[in-house]
Each structure stands twice: as C-alpha cells, then as structure tokens.
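Entry for the shared binder. Reason: the reviewer on the internal report wants the predicted structure included alongside the sequence.
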Amino acid sequence: MKSMLLSSLVALFLVACSYREDTIVTMGDYSYLKFDTKRNLIVTIDDTQPFEAKGGNRLYRIKSGKSHVKITDTKGNLIIEKNIYVGNQNTYEFALD
C-alpha cells in the first residue's frame, strides 16, 4: 500500500513538473514593391533616403499601410509620384514600360 502511494505521488510530481513551450510564428508587418521596367529607377518612399531599384522579379520590402512613393529616372526626371496603400504581405506592382 505504501509503495503504491509513493509511486502515485512520484508520478503525480513528474506530471505536474513537466514543461511545454509553444511557439507562435507571425508574419512581419511588411509589404513589397515590384517595378515592371527595364530601366534603372530612383525610388523615394515617405521622404526617406532614396534607393536605386531595378525591374524584373526583384521585390523591395516596405512597411505595410499608406505610403507616398516618388519614382524618378537616374537623371532625376519624374516618372510617377503617388500615394499607395499596400496591405500586409501584399505586393504593389508599378508597370512603367
């Protein structure tokens, strides 16, 4: 009887002291821009530092939500300037050619 009680207490102790870790994976709060063109472009988003973008299958990560996008050629000539809204994990494509 004593050994049965002791075995039950040990089993209860081991079960009560177990640990399980759950991991939650969330998608980042990012969206993407894609440029359908053969030209090299200079892109400015929300008055941040401009960057050079190339067409093709390249994606450029931006924050989700509303953004002001200004696109010029490498000589500084304005191609397009507009406000866009891009949802989380979505891609906004500019067809420029």
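Summary line for the report: Residues 8 and 18 are 16 Å apart (CA to CA).
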